[in-house]
Fold these 4 entries.
Entry 1:
Amino acid sequence: MGEEPNDARPEPADRIPDGHAPNQDRHRSPAPPDPRVAPVPEAPPWAPVPPADRAPEPPGSPGAPTTPPPPAQPPATPTLAFGPPPQAPGQASGQAPGQSAGQQPGQTPGQPFGQAAAHAPGQPPGDPSGAVPVGAGAAAASGYGFPQPGPATAPGYGPPPGYGPPGYGPPGYGPPPPAQPPGPANPAQAAAIALLNLSGLGLGYVLLRQWIGAALCWLATAALLVVALPADVDGVPVGVLVGYGVLLLAAAADGFRRGLRATLRVGAAVRRLALPLALVLLAVPAGGSLAYGAAREEAREEALLARLTVADERVKSGQGLLFDRAEPLYRLALATYQELGTKHAGSRAGKLVPARLDAYYAQLSAPYDKKDFCKAVAPLKHLRGLPGTVDKDLLGARPAKTDEPLAESLYGCGTAALGVQTAEPPAEKSLNELLDTFPQSPQATRVEPAVREAIKTRSAAVDGGAVPCGTVVELRALRSSVDALPDATFAGASRETAAAVEKGDFACGTSQFRSKEFGDAATTMTQFAKDYPNSPKAAHARSIAIAAEIADEEPEAGKSLPPAKAPGGARMVMVVSNDGPGSVELLYTGPTTGKITLNACATCTKYPSSVFLDPKKVKACTGPASKYPKATLLLPAGNYHFLQKRAGTSTSTGGDTKISKTKIEPNYSYTNCLYVTSGF
């Protein structure tokens, strides 16, 4: 078996032969010699001294010493060290320069913990000092040097392993071995790790094998994705973005701190690629932000298009409805159009608003296109007034284009309502609005001629029409409308309308009489005489009313219309007396028509009557002539119909009527006694 070469190691500073460590004050008194250590002869000046940081070289290497090894010595007795060896400056406790962590002083790799190294060759057996002369070079074995404190112990004797100074025993019997000393600062590595963390993927922590930090980054990024996706119009709440940004910055700062002096357990190729990869991965959050912004913009566009569709549906639902009922829907749609066209003009929905407004105007102008003028007025007024509620720039010239259709619609609706009593709106409302809104328009100048033409047409219908009473109703409605128009312009038309109405009322009464509508004729002519007392036709109207009242009880009296003027020639006297209770009104018609009223007879009573009594045997008006109220009639010869209408009293019923017929002949005088008979 060959011999192992002795390991050369640098001696601690306190074991250098000159007696003091580096940077130690050389003027201090040397320590007294240890009686346990034998004096060592001083090495000659020419003896080679191995450098402290030079590792032992294996035999046969080019740098190995060529001096033959000393002869083999019998194995030395192992000793236990009970005190810590002196430390050199900058050397950790219990660790020699070049010694790995956890290795005991003087212990070779693979040697049992707590056991000192064996005696090197050339050392006397049992020599506990283990001193090696300075300059021994690489031939000095590991563990050789100045003797360790404590007595030597024979093999198999002494305290068990681990019962030594702190740091030389098994785990749990002293302070833990010191941590790996930090390496030199590496800013590029730290920047790469910080940038890798800044990407939000936690890759910087992965390189550092800091799995908790990496997991936190992953959880934060996953939470952000859950909140942000799918992209909507509102986007991610500001608080979430701020919190995520703060977390990324904190992770980047922590990664920089940890990576500044860290030793990465990765290959050199990975370390070289770390910084470029970190810069590339910064595109992940940037690209994600851009992609999310595009998705959010698309979501916003879709939302705006959806709002536009809702507004279109509201406009469409207004078709076929009266404008008053559809206007709330139109207002909502316009509000949407305005917001899209002004606040979101650059969006796809905003660019469609002008076309929607054109369609809106076309739909609301449809009644005008169909010549339904009255129905077109309200929507056209709405369209013309939109600049007051909708952005003028958005509307453009559209409202101005409604002036002509609105004026035409007001004119058409107003003139069509002339003479229509049930027209809604009435003619005067539309025509006055036309004259006020568009006074200089061609339609305004056509109003007066249209009114006069309406009057002329209906006046002609009164003279030769088959239904003059209906024309009178129109004339009355026309007069009401004309009276509501400006006096300065329509004063003449108002007079023409009044004359036409008067003529129409008379024509209506005569038409009713001829049509055997005697009750209506009596009412019409009575009202005519009251409405037009100064009319040349007032007397004739009263005659027709009397004749119609008689004819209503005796149709034969209405065979012909009473003449407008009484006939000339001789007239016969008829004295009429009242021999009954209560006043009495006597109506007559024939060649002449009229009526008289007789006062009540204070002493007169009813005459008894029965089925067995001949009325001719009643002796009425046989008392003194002064007893009975009298009236004298001068009647032309001819056949007359009389109607007796007695007023009610305590002994008679009001409204009692009696019809009689008399022929008046020339050269005679007549008496007529009016009396009342009872039913028994």
Entry 2:
Amino acid sequence: MKHMNSEVKEERTSNKKRIDLFLVPIVLIAAFLNLFKIWTDEYANAYYTAAVKSMLQSFHNFFYASFDPGGYVTIDKPPVVFWIQTISAKIFGFHGWSVILPQALAGIGSVLLLYVLVKRTFGVWAGRFAALAMALTPIVPAVSRTNNIDSMLVFTLLVATWMLFRAVRTAKFGWVLAAFAMIGVAFNMKMLQAYMVLPAFYVFYVVATKINWKKKIAFLTTATALMLAVSVSWAVVVDSTSADKRPYMGSSQTNSVLELAFGYNGINRLTGNTSVTGSSHKQAAQTEQQTASSETKQNSNSSADSSQSSNQRKSSSSQKMQAPGGGNQNGMFNTGNPGPFRLFQKGLSDQISWLLPFVIFSIVGLFAGVKFKGSYTTKQKESLFWLAWLLPVAVFFSIAGFFHQYYLIMLAPPIAAFAGAGAVALWSMYKQHNGWKSWLLPGGILTTAALQIYIMSPYVSSIGVAPIAGVGAPGVILALVLAVRKQRKNSLTNYLGAAAMVVLLAMPAYWAMTPIIYGGNSMLPSAGPDSSSGMGGPPSTPTNSKQSGFNGMQPPGSSSGNSSSTNQMQPPSGSSNGGQIPGGSSNNGQMQPPSGSSNSVQMPNSFSNKSSSSKRKSGGMNAEVNQKLLNYLTKNNTGEKYLFATTDSTSAAPYIIKTGKPVMAMGGFSGSDPILTVSKLKAMIKKGEVKYFYLSGMGKGGQSDVITWIKENSKEIPSSKWQSTSSSAQQGPPGNGTLYEITLK
């Protein structure tokens, strides 16, 4: 106990010291990568931005995280992050950047927390390098620059880690309760994903605390009970509320938060099984993939000359999408094929794995000489914590059936921690000529440089050979020189070691900047020269990636010289509607443009007539509204609650963002949630709640009976009344569809 008290006193003394000047540029780098130009992203992920717009309008919508102002259906995640975003929008005004800001700040906060966590045990240089590695891990700023949840989730889990470490140092049970309660809060951000760190928390507390087993079991049992209580608190309130007094729980099949947590946002992510709860999960995946693909075209079809358009056609034709098992080596969303080396495959490795070989060598060095029986040092205990975080999460992503690239941010903290702690430990072993351990530093540098060359090689056509020649090759050379000079002690060796570590961070630093350089994708964020696509994988030509910046957007509907035969996407395997773009027709499984379109894929929503814009409408397929349609619906609204109803959230989101008025996404996010029945719809129409329906080819799913009834009992509105005749204007809210009116007596 005396030793613990001295540690606390030492911590308080160190806190009074002045700010680490080396940390300042690291924080500035993180701030730049996370904040610069977020104000150009006008809508961010429009699905979530629409929810914030709705949540600003009433406490009812705020509490349930309602997607629409009418409180019809919720979004597909718990509310905590969106409560924070709504508060930010309330303070700073409703903008794309104001809903992104909390995640950007969380990304910066994670860098600072990792510095604090690593520095105290492994030394100041270990903390600095860990913080820098965290800041430069490409997927970290890529997702922190959006209004997706994961950046805030990681920050919350790092806060819980800080509490746990403090609980062990001070031997105070209150900090244990706080740490596990914080995981419960994280559960209400992204459900079961928050529990991925639990093995690390249990293992570390058992190994690190010096109390008897009865107390350990009692304390962990109590802390776990509190965590579970916090986790399900919101779910219990929602599921206990009568269904007619709250929105439908989006993306669930039984209108239940717990089913959503353990199904769609839980076990199904691991198994990839879309048949457990019907077609909703498959349809949701299709919706995200089609939306992100449409955004790729939106960002890449800038005002380019004919030769550039030709290159883009070639690039697009080579990047067809298939579901897992469909023959595409990159799998759905370019997440690779399951297996032990999945994190080294194209599409994942360039997001997270740049330092993985060095981390492996660091783990070997940090655990060298550890005996399973006996006492452990503080360094060994905390190394065990980071290892117990790293391994289960890495295993999950190696075998999971359905996830997105940006989920990999969960691996960033342990990788960065081992990079920082390992850099100092391996350097010490190298300098002390500590037998075989002295080879770990040059070995780690050599294998890491080799992996980075491998990661960069598919991108030669877009970034050139200079990065490989200027970064990868020097990394290999420096590793070999360090191996040769292993027995020498002089300042040159110190400089060579420092240079090698800088070289290893050079390409991750460039990759981390790509969302700024080339533009980002707010729906499916990723890093790389194709970062605006959100689908990962190397672009086929330099032209394609160069045209993906903030100011390179072509008005949807305008002719770019693209041929429909050369710029088509293959739908996910087993698609019920052929995977077609809304309003398009299926032809041998390939996505076709709406009738009469000169583009391969008819882009929704009109921008300004300028060929470039200072604002990125990067909300996916739903980046803007059809103003003529909006004018028609507004003019002819006779007191109905909903401006109009449509099949899915993709069609509804831009109108909610633009007007703040209720728009009904009849089938939720993907269009296949079993929310509405014909009898319910009849009752709503009779009550005067809705009379206009916009139907396209998207999101039928389980709504076929409802859609059939609408078509049979409605009056079709002539397109001349609501569709724009301009070639550069949007033809409907996500493309070519039909507007219907129903009035029942």
Entry 3:
Amino acid sequence: MQTLKRVLALALEEAQTGFGTLCRRMTDRADAALGESARTASPADQRMASTCRLFLREHGAALRARMERAYSALLARAVQTMHTDLRTGLHDFRADTLSLVEDEVVTRQIEVERLLLRLRDADELSLGHLNLIIAQMHGDSEVRERENPFRPYLMARALYDGLQAIVTDEAQSKLLFDVLSEAMTVELGDFYTRLREVFESRGIRSRLLARPTALNKREKERLAWQRAVTGQADADQAMRQRVERLGVLQQQIQQQQFDLPQGVAGAPHGMPPGAQPAMQHGGMPMHAKPELQELVYSFFTPSGMKYSAQPAQSQLRQQLDGALRQLQRENISSGPQAPLALLDRLANLPPGSERIVVELVGMLFEFILNDELLPKGMREQLCRLHAPFLRAALQDLDVLQGAHLPGRRLLDRIGSAAAGIGADSPLLQPLQGEVERVVTVVLEQYERDPVVFANAEEELDGFLTSLLRECDPVVRRCMPALERAVEVAPQLAAVADALRGQLESVNVERRMMDFITGTWAQVMVHTKGRQPDYGKLLPELVWSAQEKIAPEERAALMKMLPALGRELRAGLAVIGMQEAAAQAALDQLVSLHMDVLSNSLPPSVLPRMSVAGLRARFGAIDLDQPIALAADGLRADALPGQSQFRAEFALHGILATVQPDPVLATASSSDDELLQWAHAGNGFELLSDDNYVQWRLSAVAPRKAGFLFTAQGQSAPLVYSRAALLAAMREGSLRPLEYAPLFERAVESLMTGAESLDAAA
């Protein structure tokens, strides 16, 4: 969703407040650090630390005040110039404008840059999100930190300038700058987290990757709106109609007052905090004159517009709901009706909140009808949902404001599936038939219960899963391996735990324990029930790693090792382990066996066991033992990873590219949002040689534990574990085909139109 001046103003307010809090925490932490230095450092350093601590206690408040004033001025300048390049170009240089740079300026730049590097590393993730948000707000395809008014350079500069203005002693200034820099770096995370929350709580989120194509499209659309608004002759006729509709809405806002949420229009200038302004009919402050964009934005913001429960309005909504119910029933048997045509049938609706909702939802569906990402037939089926969706919005505005709610989810799911299948696919026709069926069911059943939308989405998901499995030979061939990997993963985790418990009670060297529980357990579990039975090698493996005192034992081991090595290598090959990894694992065992033969192992207090005794001990391990599942899915240690998928695809004889798991799989607050795209049938783009190639998510394993991607002309599918998928989407090497969900794209278009009308007013 596009941003508004008000959201940016709220972010600026939070930045200034947050910087004041950051300064207080910074000086408190620096005081503690200087106190520690005064106790533990060398005598000379102790004296300097004590002096700086005393200075900070006496002049800390003045330093903070200077820093806050400096930051406020720098922030105002940064907002004024963001995405407006005021730097002098080479063609503007003249001899009389050139000047020398003083040493002090160079020193300042070096010190500020040194702190800047530390601040960037302190919360690189949140800073990156803010950089991307600012770029996308301005429709810029290139993310540049210098355009972000909240960049850490301003804080580093404020600290440096504040110290230079107050501290005269150079040694004190240097120590204070170092200590305060360290303290600021530690405390910075909360500052950027709160800034992100300002944008994200109002629906403005950084997308996975700034796309020149999507941003260029938005810029073209903005120009089309502006041409139509300013009455230029070559403006598109459809855009003229949209402008006319929004223009009528703009006039209603100017002539009629509506129920606005607190904070949308703002209190009159000079009113004390908490005071209530004089209200006109409808509940709007008398002096408030919100722009069209502000009002439109409030309808689609979770903390925005809410209905008031006035009896007259309730009666009007009931009458309107009855008219829409009739239109809904007409759409069961008739063809799709254009959104603007439906609006014309409601032209007699009196001005008010309901009229705004009717117009806005109609404009949203008008955009859906013209969305170029979707095939024409799918757009028309989506427009059949206009009446029931409008009824739901009139009953509860949360339908417009909650992306997780059933009505919006159904629209977005149909849109994503249609874009992912594509207009040229033979699967489009059966998909369109199913969409027509579920839309008809919604038209027949919807009254007030949103579960009708949720059921329709669930049925569509099930249909797509079955359609792709039945009609795509690659998916049909791969599904047993994909599902088996998910089934095996919890068993593998349980078997590894059981083996570890048994091995800890016998005399076995640590290298062998790691090999058995981390590598050989996979061979045992994946190949269970197949021939040869690699689980039978376990007693010999353990015995080979035990201390050999008698010459006869060493001779027996030397006789055993060649055959044991061949079987180990064969077992690792069966589960598709890469040659380099298999060789590294076997090299560790060779090193271990050399230590055994040379009597180099440290003595063990545990008794040694014979091969027969070890067979009896390990024969009780159940390779089928299940692992408990959490209520919301698989345990983290029971999720399948790259090795499980590679093993099962190798055992099933399927050539597939299994993407590597991240080195460190960390959870993120954005994981749920990213996984919302992971539905069978959705389109994705994969980065390959600096270009993005289209793939389709063709199958999703149970509990979203694995993902199978196929592409036209590609015989080998791509397989991602959950951790690998999330890592790829975070870094942008894999991204959804749509730059935003269908409903959000419609809102962006509407906001662009409102912005253009406000600018022309």
Entry 4:
Amino acid sequence: MPKLHPVVAEVTARIVERSKATRADYLRRMDAAGTSGVGRAKLSCANWAHAFAGAPVKDKLNAMSGTQPNVGVVTAYNDMLSAHQPFERFPQIIRDAVREVNATAQVAGGVPAMCDGVTQGRPGMDLSLFSRDVIAMSTAVALTHDAFDAAVCLGVCDKIVPGLFMGSLAFGHLPVVFAPAGPMPSGIPNFEKARVRAEYAQGKVDRATLLESEIGSYHSPGTCTFYGTANSNQMMMELGGLHLPSTAFVHPETGLRDALTAAAAKRAVELARTGQGRMADVITEKSIVNMIVALLATGGSTNHAIHLVAMARAAGVLIDWTDMDQLSSVTPLLARVYPNGSADVNAFQAAGGVAFVARELARAGNIHSDVVTIMGEGIHHYFQEPMLIDGALVWKDGVAESLDTDILRPASDPFDREGGLRLVQGDLGRAVIKVSAVKPENRIVEAPAAVFETQEDALQAFKDGKLDRDVVVVLRFQGPRANGMPELHSLSPALSVLQDKGFKVAFVTDGRMSGASGKTPAAIHISPEALAGGPLAHVRDGDIIRLDAEAGVLTTIGVPDLAARPAAARSPAHAAGAAWGYGRELFGAFRQAVGAAESGASICFAAPTVAAGEADAPPDPNFVDRTVDA
């Protein structure tokens, strides 16, 4: 393989140095857990009997032998999420598969899995990001029975895979295999869906027309086919070495998918028997860098500017947005998948898919080839694709050349010489922007601010025609401590309409945007957030804001001392609305304890890492402790 790109080597070395203490502590804990023996040897006879009381006789006999591996399955199944509906039948596939190799498997536990597509623009979206940490904790609860020699995680979508990943790393002394469900078949073209949404936002079509379009897009079991957070998850799990190769984008209801699920279970058993491929050795500084680069090379979701920080931290690896920005500057953009192009993930897979991307990045020196994966040493395992021949699962080399260069290109001739994510910073703080879907002529905006504190207020101003001008829409008090940092994707159609009218438009927020967003330049995840004393609290209507994605600038123009102004406060109605109703009252402790966006916006770490120049946020002044003595 060619020599590693010097910037990739430099960033990796910096991450290794920064993470020395936390990584050493993590590995010490995993080594201690591993040397304490296999789960069944530590459990008393009563404990072990409880673990298998409901199992079939054959499984009980295997368990009683004390010599065969037991695989714990952690599942995010529910049948409201199209991507997770197929998981209903996966546990039985896994049980049957491991019995063929004289092992056992049990569903260790389930984790919640909410659908952002259902909660967009609704109060439930305030729990979306927090659900990731709940999933991590739920994974820990499932595996803490300590009766397992390996784990298989079943999850696909936005917060689910990061949560499973974080929770599993607490059991990194075990091998852990992730088994996805795959995307639904293609529906109506994505640009047709976007067109109807824009027309609905302008009142040109009715709700029935919009619903017909949406049902044409989201129509069967499987992941949504655009390249948002869910499908970005799958790309990263493969380049991180936790999937079987090229399993991400195989349709759910196929013989190949079932064969891959069975093979994943058998691989977990094999790793348990050989003592290889423990998750702590798979997920390292190098594999984290590979995951970042894979995300950047394919124009993946901005949500991972938050998730990846928390995911890495769970392995004792400390990364920040500067690392991502510098890697992006040298990562070739190899894919154009909606919203960064017109194709969906099915077309991406047909053009060459993950195997093509992995090989191109390795040959260009953009990723580390010398990593440990669940397949063994080396990233080269992920240059292969699975297929069924006479009912048998076999592997073949992926395509040598892209089958559609409008969707997928080699590193020698990329769509762009840099990746899809950039850091912007200035007197408004630090933020990220996804530029891969933003046309170059729209990447620099300097215009007056229109300041809001709720999506509803911003959308009403759009409907009233008050935003029909060059404008920077500022939406603040949307950070993790304010209201759980909801996605603000409901604003995307309105912003796109304004841009299409010829106005210079940008969006600036301490909240998040969906992984499906991208057409309008958006500086998001601003850190520190407004509620934590961030500069966004000092911005006023009419202030000139410059967002320059090319130069990495996010600043006010002509405001001599932004910090000297009095900070705006949330309206009482907004503060109360963010704290109560739709289950939000149960998450007050999360809002109090959550770290900053650039620290991963997590409550799972006792001492969250803090970005340079950013102080720990003060407690939420609007929080009221309503607990009573029992």
